[in-house]
Amino acid sequence: MASSAKPSIPIADLESFSEHLKSSDRILALLGAGLSASSGLPTFRGAGGLWRSHGAVSLATPEAFNADPGLVWQFYSYRRHMALQAQPNRAHLALAELARRKEHFITLSQNVDGLSPRADHPASKLHLLHGSLFDVRCTSFYCNYAEENNFTDPISPSLAIPSERPQPAPSTTDNTGAEATNSLYGAMKTNNFIKGSQRELDISDDRVPIPDIPIRDLPHCPKCKDGLLRPGVVWFGEPLPEKTISAIEDFILESKKIDLILVIGTSAKVYPAAGYVDRARNKGARVAVVNMDRGDTPGGRGGLMKGDWFFEGDAGVIVPEILKSVVGDV
Length: 330
Description:
six-stranded parallel β-sheet, alpha/beta, three-stranded antiparallel β-sheet, single chain, 11 helices, globular
C-alpha cells in the first residue's frame, strides 16, 4: 500500500488547483494502471509482461480462449484472486467521494481490477473502458446472460489457487512403519485443520505445474446451462463497449463547457482517451495530471499548457491530498 507520508506538492500548485476544483462543476477523470499501483497489483503490461511462459497479451484474445479456455481461465482467475487480495487505496476512495460530492463528475477507467467499484464509487458515474475481471458473460450465440461484480473466488472449484501442502516424511530409522503412519496422519491433520496457514503457490511461475482443466469443469452459464462463461474484459481485436463510449460522448456533447479533466495513472496518449483530453480542452477544461513520470503527458497536442497542473508521484498519496479541499480526509 502507499505510504501515509504527505507528498511533496508545490504549495502554489496545490492552492490554485484546489480553488479551481471547488469552483468546477463539470469534471471528467481518466484513470489508468498507475492508480492501482499503490494497491500492489501486477499489471502484466508491456513487452516483458509474462504470465508463466506466455505473453499476457497473447492470452487476452478470443482466439486464445477458443484454443485453450482452461489456460485462459486460469490466467484470469489468478488475476481475479490477486485483485481481491488487494484493497482500494486512498485515491480510489477520494475519487469515489468526489463522485458523491460533485453531481456532474464522471470517470472513465481503463482498469479492470475492480478496485473502484469496491471503493463504492457510484456505479452511475463510473464507466469501464476495458470491462472488468469481475464481469462474466455467456459465450453461446443464443444466450445473452451477463453478470457484473461477481466477486466469487474461485469462480469455480477447478480454478482454486493450489496450496503447498505438508507431506509425510519417510523414516530413516524405524522399520515398523509406526513413524511413517504417524507422519501420514500428521500431514492429513495439517491439510484438514489448518488450511488457512497453507502457502499458496505462485502459478504465474511456469515452474509451478498447473492442471489441464477439462471444459466441463470450467465456469458455465447458469441461464442456458450449456455455454461457457468468459471474463467480461475487452480482449484485443474486440470493440470497446458501446454503452461506455456513448456515456462519455453524451457527457462531452451535452454542455458547452467542461471545467476540469483529471488524468490519473495513465499517459492518455492512446485513443480514444487522448481525444477526450483534447475535446475537453476545446470546451475550456484545464488539465490536471497525476503520474510517476513527468515525461508522460496526455493528449495529442504535445502535452500540458499554461494553466494545467502536473503532480508527480504516487497517485495513492497525491490524489487524496489534491482532492481534500472538496472530499475531506479519506
